[in-house]
Here is the input.
Amino acid sequence: MPDQRFREWVRTELQQEGAALSSYVSTATRLEKAFQIRSLTLAELRALEAEIADAPGRTGPDGRNFVLRRGGKRHELDPNVRVRLRQYIRFREETGVRPVRDGTASRPSRTPAGGGSADRNYRRLTSRKAVFAAMAECRRVTEKQLRATYRFGPSRGYVARYEGHEYPSKAIVGIAFRFQFPEVGALTPHDLSGGESGAARHLSRLGFDVDGVARDPNDWSVEEVEFIVELYFAMWASQQRKGYERRSYLQQALARLAPRRNEGAIGRKLSNISAIVEGLGLPVLRGFPALGNKQTLLTAVVTDWLDDHPDSFGGLPAAPLQIPDAQDLEVPPPPAAKLGDVRRDRRGCKVDFAAQDERNRALGRAGEEWAVEFLKKDLRDKGRADLAEKVAWVSETIGDGLGYDIECSASDGSPLYVEVKTTNQGINSPFVVSANEIRASQQLGAAYVLLRIFNFSDRPQVYRLTGDLSEACDLRPLSYSAAPTSSQGVANAAKPVAQAKSKAAA
Here is the structure.
């Protein structure tokens, strides 16, 4: 199988999603099986590329395939292999990933201690605000300080220009990474590939002018992207208030963006924003389903907008929510891969939406109240009105310390203990669980149910997780309760004594 970093590189550098992304990965997988491309050096890969270029064609049912005889074996390959191998070689050139030898894992030639190579991939930089902070840092320090602190020297080319100032593009990308990902820190020159296809190109894609890097005149400008992102979230807020009129907003967009952009282009860009929002596990705008091939600049502007408006998804429904048919509202849990994608995409966003939901007591209480009615309606629909009357909202009447919120029964009369987790975000959004809730789920076993309510402020739906949460969920630590160790206490207590003795001797 190709390295996961190749998939990420195709997604970010080539901006491929969906079927196109799968095509790149599947072709790389076939090349790995046939030629073990992950174990080849760059020189060996280029030699293979030359052999493939010279291979005879016109075989297979459609007459488009070609045959390569190598190492005593006959390989029938489709024409896409030539292009895909060229892109794989480019991936290896730009990332510095070494060939896999004797089962060892591939890795870049140098990986600083601040994080793994995947964490230090400069293409994760998706914040214009972080770039502005890096520019301010470069104006603040001298050239000598820049080299001493960040190891970047003056630019030999690919100078970034903004508001009359000149900046070394590599240094800007490396330092900006520190502001978007403080837990990883600034990138070093070894993390960045030079030239037009490296850091300079990425900075250009974030909407900045860089000498020697041409920008497509048909691309959306920064001003156009900022306008369409503001419009998207204004439409979303209107949708939550139940006053959403799609036509009036599209006319507003046409008045601002025509004649460069027509209604079709505007609709596609709004769907591109939906793809970014959906990737973050947030609810999307109705009428504009997610569409891939997202512009890097668009991702950056959406990321910054969310950081500037952290409470956008914490509101309550404009009117009391009704439960027409409980069974129609319940869906299966999302696949783990989807939740993993959301976690990955959220790394560049400073807003912790899961923790925000946990702190939003009004949202949590409204969700619990809705869940009580949902469980009652579900029992009534199953002919157990007697059990529906016994549903108890215990977190409201007793308190929050039980590890669950509701006591009720299944339709067969067996007891259930239900913990409710509510969000205005989408089905793939992660949630926070406490140590007490995990303990309760382990003690109660199959009688414990976590009821996840999502899209709450718009069109709420639910899924259930049953039993031990440590088995039902992929748990990641968010924080720790900390206290000094006894050895630290002794060491720190000894310091004032030692200092006093030193002063006395002097």
Remarks:
- The two ends are 68 Å apart (CA to CA).
- The first helix runs from residue 4 to 12.
- The chain is about 50% helix and 10% strand.
- The mean pLDDT is 81.
